[in-house]
Amino acid sequence: MAPPDVPRLFVAVPIPPEIVAKVGDLVADVDASIRSTGHRVRWVQMEGLHVTVRFLGPTSGSQIDAVAAAVDRSAPAVGGPFPIRIGGAGAFPDSTRPRALWLGIRFGGEALATLSNALTTELVADGWSLEARPFQPHLTIARPDGSPSMVSVIGAGG
Fold first, then answer.
1. pLDDT digit string (tens) for 49-88?
2. Cβ(77)–Cβ(113) under 8 Å?
3. Where are the beta strands (DSSP E) in the chain?
4. 148, exposed or middle or buried, with CB in 10 Å at 0-12, 13-18, 19+?
5. DSSP letter string over 85-121?
6. C-beta atoms surrounding 99 within 10 Å
7. For the segment 82-127, what is each residue's pLDDT rounded down to a tens digit?
8. Which residues of 104-119 are buried (b: 16+ CB within 10 A; e: fewer)?
9. What's the pTM?
């Protein structure tokens, strides 16, 4: 386990403010429904909404320049800005044991996967390990209390 002063980092693509506002409206509506069931949910901060491209885990300050260089080398793989469209919802690891609630990426997921793969290739060349889980583009919006019945309130199938 890493020392407590070593931050757990990730590389992410930020979400445009107009999309953040729409997701915020959705969250407000869903939050009212969930509160009426007595379940607890910790919503993410909307101003920090992002799509994680690669989770790095505990990362020392001495590694940050190498990560930044890997990001710079991998960014051209997508050729610049690209549109995304949000659609669908689910839970990780699944709807029977929800630990995270997410919104799916209906359009633009291929570009995000290309970016993730390019970044992983660069990081592995620099000595990072491969991510065991396959990349799945999504917006994490909440951390629920783990109740499967709560997932049905938002219509997230898994």
1. 999 999 998 999 999 999 999 999 999 999 988 999 999 9
2. no
3. 8-14, 41-43, 50-58, 85-92, 100-107, 138-144
4. middle
5. EEEEEEEES-TTS-SEEEEEEEESHHHHHHHHHHHHH
6. 12
7. 999 999 999 888 888 888 999 999 999 999 999 999 999 999 999 9
8. bbeebbebbbbbbebb
9. 0.83
Joined tokens for residue 64: 């940050």
Instruction: Tell me the sheet residues that pair with 90.
Output: 102
Q: How far is CA 82 from the centre of its chain?
A: 17
Q: How far apart are CA 126 and CA 11, in angstroms?
A: 15
Cα 123 to Cα 54: distance, rounded to the nearest angstrom: 10
Quickly tell me which residue has 């509160």 as its tokens.
35
pLDDT of residue 148: 60
Beta bridge partners of 29: none
Look up residue 108 and give its amino acid: G
**Alpha-carbon span 58 to 1, nearest angstrom:** 9
C-alpha span between 65 and 49 (Å, rounded): 24
Report the relative pairing of strands 8-14 and 138-144 from DSSP bridges.
unpaired
User: DSSP 3-state assignment of 13?
Assistant: strand
Structure tokens that stand for 31 in this block: 């939050």
